[in-house]
Structure formats: structure tokens, C-alpha cells
Protein 1
Amino acid sequence: MKTYLSFLLLLVFPFTIYSQETLSADELFLKARTAAFDQKDYATSISLAKQALEKAPNYTDISIFLGRVYTWNNDVASARTLFEELGKKEVQNEDYFLAYASLEYWNDQNTKAIEILDKGLGYHPQSESLLLLKAKVYYGSENYKEAESTINSLLAINPKNTEARALAARINDLTSKNAINIVYNYTHFDKQFDNDWHIVSLSYKRITPIGSIILRGNYANKFAENGTQIELEAYPKISKMFYLYVGGGYSNDVGIFPKYRTGVSLNANLPHSFEAELGYRQLYFSNNIWMYTASVGKYYKNFWFNLRTYITPDSKNISHSYTGTVRYYTKSAQDYFAFQIGTGISPEEYRNNLLENETYKLKTFKVGGEYNFSIKKTNLFSLSAMYFNQEFRPHERGNQFDITIGYTKKF
């Protein structure tokens, strides 16, 4: 039986070799791509690509592809040698610069990656792929100003580049070491309360090597009474994908504000321009109120879509709050229109002291819009308006109107 099998292999093997030898460079290239992309068989793909280059040594696309497969196969030395040889030939192919710079970026050689990208952009100044990678390299090396400049150049070419829009949003809060923000909120009730509410917030934000830190003071006039609150928030980085939100607040004017508030969330910048958050918020008036929050967001061209929920369990039932938000970016990450619609009260709203009276179990509908714009990049303005229809007592509804204006100075 073994002799018979050996005889068959001797008959078949020469034909297999002959069939490979008769394939054209293009046919071998196609088989190499299939092995790499569909089967993740990099060893076979490399072998086929080398055979194709033996037939067509000056076939640049195959050489670039081979360099990419070497990179995916963690053979950095072979990939770098091949790309350097192509560089000596003064190759001007856009994909060459993208593949070579990606190799260096993925191996933390950011300076070399920028050098390669700048050379490629000299030949292809409108290349979205090269500009996006350059912004990523600067972002990864924490050179946020250059990252912002590069991503804005890309968005000027194509404002609907989804991945660029998502990266611009992440860069936005990191371009200035400091920021001072002042916000004024005015609230009018037609039935629920006799007096309008006024809230003023002043905050200072500092970017540190571990993430941003915000110190905020709030003054409010609610129910014709005054109150103050102090808050501290931080956004420590865990990795390129994950970061935390950690916040806390204290007020001695219980009822105007909660006496204590805390919150922690895990945030993720996910592939395909998605983002997500999972965490909790806690408010203490005379008793603790615990809320659990989750959200998912998605960038698509000029748009950002987000859906957030707050779930509040207690001994009798589980209360829900849902808010959907859509943003349309006009220029940078600081310039956009937003539309919001939802139900329930969230602990992030200025109305959070209403949670103490458990009105969050009653039906609430809200809808509103927001406009944010910047002047000279460091002056940021915001204007928003919200309408609430609140069931403040069983089967009795009232209307509420909120107007908020804000200004931020970056420096």
C-alpha cells in the first residue's frame, strides 16, 4: 500500500510543480492575496509572492504586498529590508509609503514613520490614507497639536471621512494644556414650580500625562434659595483603547444639590469608529440613589450618533431613562449642530435634584438642540435649548424650558 501511494505522489508532484511554473505573475499574485486575506496563511502567501516576483522582478505592487505580509507575519527585518530596497528605486507608489510607514508605526518608530509619510505626501498631498496615518502617529506619540493640524487638513479635503472625524473628536480635548469654562443655565416651569432656576458653573481643566482633570464650582438659585457645589472629575488613560471617567462632588446645600455624588465609567474607543461606555452614578440626598449607565456611539461621515440609558433599580421597580443624540459636524470637532430626544431624567442634568423626590418614576419627554462653534480654535461657544414635558404628579403634566449658554477659553 505504501509503495502504491509513493508511486501516485511521484506521478502527481511533477504536475503540481509544472502547474505552478505555468502560472503568470498576476495569477500567482492573486493566489498569494487569497492565501493572505482569506486563509491567513502568510507562509504560503509569501512563497507565492516570491514566485511571482521571480517572473516579474519589477512588479512593484507585488513587492509592496510582500512587505505587508512580512509585517503581518512579524518578520520586521525582512519587511524593512524590502521597503528600503524599494526606496532606493525611488518608488512613488502611494501604497508603498502607507505600507512602509505602517510597519514603522506599529513598531513604535514614530519619527521614521513621519519621515516616510512626509515623503509620500510630497508626491500625494491629497492622500487621505497618508494624512490619516500621519495624524495617528502624532496622536500615538502625544504630539496633539500636530495631530490636530494633520487631521484638520484631511477633513478640509474630505469632511465626510468617518475615521478622521472620530480621531478628531479624541484629539480635540488634548490640544491645549489648560481650559477655563463658564456655563449659565436658565430654567422656566409653567406649572411645577413658581420660581425660575438659575445655575452658573465655572470650571478649570488641566491636561496631564495620565489624562485630563477638571475642577468645577457650581452656584444655583432653585426654589428661590441659593446653593453651591464643588466637583472634581478625571479621565485617566488606561490604554490606546480604554480610559476611565472618575467623578465626585460635595454640597452643603442639600436639596439644591445632592450632598454627595460619585461616578465611575469605563470608556472604549472601538474599531470601525464606534465607542462605548459602561458605569455607575450615585447621588446622596437623605438616601443613596444608584444609577447604572451604558452608552454606545458611532461616527459616520459628518455625523455622530449616540444612545445612552440610565437604569435605576429600587425595591419596587426599575426606572429607565433613554436619550438619543445626533451631531452634525460642520468643520472641526468643536463645530457642530446637535439634536437630542429622550425620556426620563439623567443625573448629569441640572435637574438632578428632582431625583430625590422620585419623580424620575413618572413620565418625562424631552427634546432639544445645541450649536457649538469656535473662533480661532481657542475660543469655544455653545448655545442649547431643551423642552421637557414632565408628569410631576400622577396624571398631571407641566412644561419646562431650558436655555444654556457656555464659553470655553483654551490656552
Note: The chain has two domains: 2-172, 178-410.
Protein 2
Amino acid sequence: MHPCADAEALAFAQSELAGTRTAALVRDAAASAEGAIIEWRRLFHQHPELSGRESHTQEMLCGELDRLGVEYRRLDNNGIIATIRGEAPGAYDAAGVPVRRVALRADIDALPVTEDTGVPFASENDGVMHACGHDAHMAMMLGAIRILLETKSQLKGEVRILFQPAEEISIGALSMIDAGALDGVDAIYGAHIWSEVDAGTVSCAPGQRMANTDWFHIDIEGVSAHGSMPHKGVDAVVVGAEMVNGLQVLVSRDVSPFDPVVVTVGEFHGGEARNIMAGHAYLSGTVRTWTEKLRREVPDRLERIVSKIGHAFGAKVKFTFEEGNAGLSNDPVCAEVARRAVVDMLGESAVSDYRGTLSGEDFSEYLNIVPGVFCFVGTRNPEVGASHPQHSCHFTIDESVLAKGSMVAAQWACRMLAAE
């Protein structure tokens, strides 16, 4: 990973003066915005859209940006790039170029999940749900924008706001980068509402925080036969079932327990009728690894397992492996700025020691280009029913954390850009 931009940025990150100057402004602005942030979250929650289809979501966001008076560029990929221009002395050079520019990113897509939460603002789009929390991310980002508009006098440079589509299918960040989202950016901040972190706390530790995320697909060609004559065919469903179990050998027996790996079969399709032995089936799933070394070894190991199983049953097997996003690692200096922002806003006790996750995030694509930090904004609170994991049809959040997430994002930007 890159070090944070330069010695000047490091000196600023260590400066308590900047945080003291903006903390009260940020808290006051967040207090007045909290009701709107919750309403935004509920609005987006009611109208989820799948990855690559977020046109109405983009429309809603543009409407809110218009009401806030924020300039923005609407992208063909359903994303948005907005700009908040600082007004501190020296914010721009003689050519009108900001002396610093930092970015804040929120993802906007939803999942193919049928909601079962019972909330009055449940999804109105059948089979689609904000089951990962991106509705909260949009709301927190609009809250951060509203806060930053109140602190422009302290910003020595620009804040670029990225509303990103298609995170769930791992292509949104790359499309934003292609659209110029990182042009001239010195550092970037992202955050995820997180069900494994206690509400009211935020994790922003340096180093690796999320896993490499890759994908596989297995086509199984058997021999179809009558269900009453199994000896006449090769049952692709039986072969696939054996593979579901066999793939877990990679986790339990083929890899050191000190080198985390997760193999998940998310799809298993086979058969056409209840009395016909399936002649074809397919499985698809995901592999999560922590180290780059194991990531490079996994495809061959998985292919070896499935090919041996196919051979044992007399089936033909085609194994396809697709690389997704690399693991996500926080820049130490940018992470320290985030930690100080959490302390500024919520106190020392709000800094969570969460160990990280084998979930994946295409925010890592931004971090391949510029230094940055990705924070986990805790929402776990069983007292309000916020105890289900992301991607569950029962997933919900503790809405009291939304304004906190907005404050931390805004304060991070303020610390990075505050006039000295």
C-alpha cells in the first residue's frame, strides 16, 4: 500500500489543532441533520435497486444534492461525483487548483433478497432489499455533505464525494475510476455499516481489514437417465453434492489453520424433472483468502479436487475461476486520522478493536491507486433488533449510529483539509 501522500500530510494528521477547530462545528451540524439522515435512510431503503440498475437511486440522490446546493457530475454508470469547495485561506493556488483534495465514497446498490423485517419502510421493490446497508451509506454521506457545507470555512482544499454503483458485483469502483473519480485525489475515505461491531463504536485500524474476493463456476456433465434406472446414467446432482462437501477439504485439510480461507457454494442447479436423473448441473461460489500467496494457489487446488471427484463418478467437469477484488488494507496514516476523528466525535471508548473480516470490498480498487482508510461503523444492538448479519432478509440497523457515521466521515475530511 502507498504511504499517505507526503510529509505535510503526516504532519497534519498528527496535528490536534485541526481537530479541535472543527469538532464543535461538526457536532452542531450533525445534531441538526440527524432527523434528515434517518429519513434519507428510510427513503432509500424503500426503493432499492440491483447493481447496474440504480437509475432511480441516482435520480433521488441528484435531487437531494440539488436541494443541498452541491455541484455534481452525473455519470452514465449510475454513479455521481460531487464537489465541496473549501473556503479557507490558501485553499486554491493561483491557477485555481486545490492544494489538497480528499474523497469520500458511498456505495448505492442493493441485493436480490426478499425482505422480512416488518419495518414500515420495507422495500417496495419485490425481491430486492438493502440487505447490506448501502441505504445507510447514502444517508450517512448526505449527512456528511450537509456537515461539510457548514464547515467550508475550515477546509483548505476540496472534498470529492463519490456515490458508487455496482459494489455488490465488484465492478463499480473500477467504473468510477475510469470516469475520473480519483483524478487529483490525495487520499480517500470509505465506511461500511457493520453488524459485527457494536453500535456507537467505529473500527478504523491500519493494515489489512478485508479479504481477497474471487469466484468460481463448475459445470458438471453427467448422463441423463430414468430415475428408476440409476445404473444407466451418471447423476450430475450426486456429483455436485459430493463436490459441495469435497471443496471444504481445502479449508479443513489442505490449508494451514493460520492462513484463513473460506469456500462457499452459493448456487447449485441441476435437474429438470423429479423422475429424471440429471444429466447436467452447475455450482458457483466464492473463495475468500487473506494472503496473496494462498490466493495464487487456490485455483489449482480447487480444480484438482473437483476434477478428481468428476473422474471418480465418470462425469465431465469444467472448472472456471474468476479473480475479483484484492484484499483491503488501510494506510497507517490515513487510519490514524480516522481514529482521531472517532475520538473527536465519540470519545476514546468508541474506537473498536474489531479484527477484520473475510468479506470483500471493491473499495480496495481505490486503495490500489491512492492511500486511504475504510472504517466499520458499528450497528450491532440486539435491544433494537439489530443483530442479524449483512445479506440476511432480516438485516436491520440501529439508526442512532447514522449521524455518528456522518460525523466521523466529515471530521476525517476536516482534519485532512483544515486550514493551519
Note: The two ends are 28 Å apart (CA to CA).
